[in-house]
Amino acid sequence: MTPWLGLLVLLGSWSLGYWGAEACTCSPSHPQDAFCNSDIVIRAKVVGKKLVKEGPFGTLVYTIKQMKMYRGFTKMPHVQYIHTEASESLCGLKLEVNKYQYLLTGRVYDGKMYTGLCNFVERWDQLTLSQRKGLNYRYHLGCNCKIKSCYYLPCFVTSKNECLWTDMLSNFGYPGYQSKHYACIRQKGGYCSWYRGWAPPDKSIINATDP
Fold this sequence. Notes:
Interacts with EFEMP1. Interacts with KDR. This protein is α+β, with helices and mostly antiparallel strands. It has helices spanning 3-11, 31-36, 129-141, 168-171, 177-181, and strands at residues 40-52, 59-71, 81-85, 101-109, 112-114, 122-123, 146-149, 162-165, 183-186, 192-195. The protein folds into two domains: 26-127, CATH 2.40.50.120; 128-199, Tissue inhibitor of metalloproteinase-1. Chain B, domain 1 (Alpha-Beta Complex). The protein contains five helices and ten strands; from the N terminus they run H-H-E-E-E-E-E-E-H-E-E-H-H-E-E. The protein has a five-stranded mixed beta barrel. Strands 7-8 form a two-stranded parallel sheet. Strands 9-10 form a two-stranded antiparallel ribbon. The radius of gyration is 17 Å and the shape is globular.
Protein backbone atom coordinates (compact mmCIF):
# COMPACT_ATOMS: atom_id res chain seq x y z
CA MET A 1 0.00 0.00 0.00
CA THR A 2 1.39 3.39 -0.96
CA PRO A 3 1.67 6.12 1.72
CA TRP A 4 -1.01 8.28 0.15
CA LEU A 5 -3.47 5.39 0.01
CA GLY A 6 -3.19 5.19 3.77
CA LEU A 7 -4.21 8.84 3.92
CA LEU A 8 -7.27 8.15 1.78
CA VAL A 9 -8.39 5.19 3.87
CA LEU A 10 -7.86 7.22 7.04
CA LEU A 11 -9.93 10.03 5.63
CA GLY A 12 -12.78 7.62 4.86
CA SER A 13 -14.94 10.13 3.07
CA TRP A 14 -18.26 9.36 1.41
CA SER A 15 -17.95 9.12 -2.37
CA LEU A 16 -19.72 8.12 -5.57
CA GLY A 17 -17.90 4.80 -5.31
CA TYR A 18 -19.07 3.82 -1.84
CA TRP A 19 -20.30 0.49 -3.18
CA GLY A 20 -17.90 0.49 -6.12
CA ALA A 21 -15.15 -1.99 -5.31
CA GLU A 22 -15.37 -5.21 -3.36
CA ALA A 23 -12.10 -4.83 -1.46
CA CYS A 24 -12.36 -1.07 -0.97
CA THR A 25 -14.27 -0.23 2.20
CA CYS A 26 -15.10 3.38 3.06
CA SER A 27 -16.94 4.83 6.03
CA PRO A 28 -19.85 7.08 4.97
CA SER A 29 -19.22 10.78 5.49
CA HIS A 30 -21.44 13.82 5.04
CA PRO A 31 -20.23 16.06 2.15
CA GLN A 32 -19.49 18.82 4.65
CA ASP A 33 -17.12 16.56 6.59
CA ALA A 34 -15.53 15.48 3.32
CA PHE A 35 -15.04 19.15 2.41
CA CYS A 36 -13.60 20.15 5.78
CA ASN A 37 -11.26 17.13 5.98
CA SER A 38 -9.85 17.54 2.47
CA ASP A 39 -6.71 19.45 1.54
CA ILE A 40 -8.09 20.20 -1.92
CA VAL A 41 -11.66 20.73 -3.17
CA ILE A 42 -12.06 21.70 -6.82
CA ARG A 43 -14.41 21.63 -9.78
CA ALA A 44 -12.65 20.29 -12.84
CA LYS A 45 -12.92 18.46 -16.15
CA VAL A 46 -10.70 15.49 -16.94
CA VAL A 47 -8.90 16.03 -20.25
CA GLY A 48 -6.42 13.15 -20.23
CA LYS A 49 -5.04 10.17 -18.32
CA LYS A 50 -2.03 7.87 -18.25
CA LEU A 51 -0.86 4.86 -16.27
CA VAL A 52 2.47 5.17 -14.52
CA LYS A 53 4.50 2.48 -12.74
CA GLU A 54 4.03 3.52 -9.16
CA GLY A 55 2.64 1.33 -6.37
CA PRO A 56 1.75 -2.39 -6.58
CA PHE A 57 -0.73 -2.03 -9.47
CA GLY A 58 0.38 1.26 -10.94
CA THR A 59 -1.06 4.74 -10.56
CA LEU A 60 -3.53 6.53 -12.82
CA VAL A 61 -2.60 10.15 -13.39
CA TYR A 62 -5.46 12.29 -14.68
CA THR A 63 -4.78 15.58 -16.41
CA ILE A 64 -7.50 18.06 -15.48
CA LYS A 65 -8.71 21.51 -16.41
CA GLN A 66 -9.46 23.24 -13.13
CA MET A 67 -12.64 25.32 -13.27
CA LYS A 68 -12.82 26.54 -9.67
CA MET A 69 -11.11 25.93 -6.34
CA TYR A 70 -13.17 25.82 -3.13
CA ARG A 71 -10.52 24.71 -0.67
CA GLY A 72 -6.75 24.38 -0.79
CA PHE A 73 -5.54 27.80 -1.90
CA THR A 74 -2.50 27.63 0.39
CA LYS A 75 -1.78 23.94 -0.28
CA MET A 76 -1.86 23.95 -4.07
CA PRO A 77 -3.49 27.00 -5.72
CA HIS A 78 -3.72 25.36 -9.14
CA VAL A 79 -4.12 21.63 -9.75
CA GLN A 80 -3.17 20.19 -13.12
CA TYR A 81 -2.89 16.48 -12.25
CA ILE A 82 -4.64 14.17 -9.83
CA HIS A 83 -3.33 10.75 -8.81
CA THR A 84 -5.23 7.62 -7.85
CA GLU A 85 -4.55 3.89 -7.56
CA ALA A 86 -5.02 2.07 -10.87
CA SER A 87 -6.86 -0.76 -9.10
CA GLU A 88 -10.41 -0.20 -7.82
CA SER A 89 -9.76 -2.86 -5.19
CA LEU A 90 -7.26 -0.38 -3.70
CA CYS A 91 -9.84 2.41 -3.89
CA GLY A 92 -8.67 3.67 -7.28
CA LEU A 93 -11.04 6.09 -8.98
CA LYS A 94 -12.26 5.81 -12.57
CA LEU A 95 -13.17 9.09 -14.27
CA GLU A 96 -14.44 9.83 -17.78
CA VAL A 97 -12.16 11.83 -20.06
CA ASN A 98 -13.56 14.88 -21.91
CA LYS A 99 -17.09 14.10 -20.83
CA TYR A 100 -18.11 15.53 -17.44
CA GLN A 101 -17.15 18.18 -14.97
CA TYR A 102 -16.47 16.70 -11.53
CA LEU A 103 -16.38 17.87 -7.95
CA LEU A 104 -13.06 16.45 -6.73
CA THR A 105 -11.72 16.27 -3.19
CA GLY A 106 -8.40 14.87 -2.07
CA ARG A 107 -5.22 15.13 -0.04
CA VAL A 108 -1.82 16.57 -0.87
CA TYR A 109 1.20 14.32 -0.44
CA ASP A 110 4.70 15.18 -1.61
CA GLY A 111 3.37 18.08 -3.66
CA LYS A 112 0.76 15.98 -5.53
CA MET A 113 -3.01 15.67 -5.19
CA TYR A 114 -4.33 12.19 -4.51
CA THR A 115 -7.93 11.01 -4.51
CA GLY A 116 -9.89 7.76 -4.56
CA LEU A 117 -13.18 6.01 -3.94
CA CYS A 118 -13.14 7.02 -0.27
CA ASN A 119 -13.11 10.70 -1.16
CA PHE A 120 -16.15 12.78 -2.03
CA VAL A 121 -16.11 12.76 -5.84
CA GLU A 122 -19.24 13.44 -7.87
CA ARG A 123 -20.28 14.62 -11.30
CA TRP A 124 -21.04 18.31 -11.06
CA ASP A 125 -24.43 17.94 -12.73
CA GLN A 126 -25.43 15.40 -10.06
CA LEU A 127 -24.90 17.80 -7.14
CA THR A 128 -27.94 19.46 -5.60
CA LEU A 129 -28.29 23.23 -5.39
CA SER A 130 -27.77 23.00 -1.62
CA GLN A 131 -24.53 21.06 -2.09
CA ARG A 132 -23.25 23.66 -4.54
CA LYS A 133 -24.06 26.43 -2.06
CA GLY A 134 -22.33 24.38 0.60
CA LEU A 135 -19.16 24.25 -1.46
CA ASN A 136 -19.24 28.00 -2.06
CA TYR A 137 -19.55 29.06 1.57
CA ARG A 138 -21.80 27.04 3.89
CA TYR A 139 -19.57 24.01 4.46
CA HIS A 140 -16.66 26.29 5.33
CA LEU A 141 -18.81 28.01 7.97
CA GLY A 142 -19.47 24.63 9.59
CA CYS A 143 -15.95 23.22 9.77
CA ASN A 144 -15.87 23.90 13.53
CA CYS A 145 -19.07 21.90 13.99
CA LYS A 146 -19.16 18.12 14.39
CA ILE A 147 -21.54 15.92 12.39
CA LYS A 148 -22.42 12.93 14.56
CA SER A 149 -23.51 9.77 12.74
CA CYS A 150 -26.63 7.94 13.91
CA TYR A 151 -26.83 4.30 12.81
CA TYR A 152 -29.77 3.22 14.99
CA LEU A 153 -32.25 4.83 17.37
CA PRO A 154 -32.16 6.25 19.94
CA CYS A 155 -29.24 8.60 19.36
CA PHE A 156 -28.62 12.07 20.71
CA VAL A 157 -26.29 15.02 20.41
CA THR A 158 -24.00 15.31 23.43
CA SER A 159 -22.63 18.83 22.94
CA LYS A 160 -23.77 22.10 21.43
CA ASN A 161 -21.36 21.83 18.50
CA GLU A 162 -22.93 18.61 17.16
CA CYS A 163 -25.51 17.94 14.44
CA LEU A 164 -27.15 14.52 14.32
CA TRP A 165 -26.72 12.84 10.91
CA THR A 166 -29.48 10.27 10.42
CA ASP A 167 -29.21 9.38 6.72
CA MET A 168 -27.90 5.93 7.67
CA LEU A 169 -31.23 5.01 9.25
CA SER A 170 -32.92 4.83 5.85
CA ASN A 171 -30.28 5.32 3.16
CA PHE A 172 -27.10 3.89 4.68
CA GLY A 173 -25.57 7.32 4.17
CA TYR A 174 -25.59 7.15 0.38
CA PRO A 175 -26.88 9.72 -0.39
CA GLY A 176 -29.58 10.76 2.07
CA TYR A 177 -31.68 13.86 2.51
CA GLN A 178 -29.31 15.55 4.94
CA SER A 179 -26.34 14.84 2.67
CA LYS A 180 -28.13 16.36 -0.31
CA HIS A 181 -29.78 19.40 1.25
CA TYR A 182 -28.29 20.42 4.62
CA ALA A 183 -25.18 21.95 6.14
CA CYS A 184 -24.30 21.92 9.84
CA ILE A 185 -23.56 25.54 10.78
CA ARG A 186 -22.85 27.31 14.06
CA GLN A 187 -25.76 29.59 14.98
CA LYS A 188 -26.28 32.36 17.51
CA GLY A 189 -25.48 31.22 21.01
CA GLY A 190 -22.72 28.92 19.80
CA TYR A 191 -25.00 26.02 18.87
CA CYS A 192 -24.51 24.04 15.68
CA SER A 193 -27.66 23.03 13.82
CA TRP A 194 -28.76 21.88 10.39
CA TYR A 195 -29.34 24.69 7.93
CA ARG A 196 -30.92 24.65 4.48
CA GLY A 197 -31.37 28.32 3.67
CA TRP A 198 -34.33 29.64 5.61
CA ALA A 199 -34.71 30.45 9.33
CA PRO A 200 -32.45 28.27 11.51
CA PRO A 201 -34.24 25.29 13.10
CA ASP A 202 -35.17 25.17 16.76
CA LYS A 203 -32.09 24.06 18.72
CA SER A 204 -34.21 22.34 21.38
CA ILE A 205 -35.74 19.84 18.91
CA ILE A 206 -33.95 16.98 17.25
CA ASN A 207 -36.01 15.33 14.51
CA ALA A 208 -34.49 12.07 13.30
CA THR A 209 -36.05 12.23 9.85
CA ASP A 210 -36.13 15.92 8.88
CA PRO A 211 -33.47 18.08 10.59
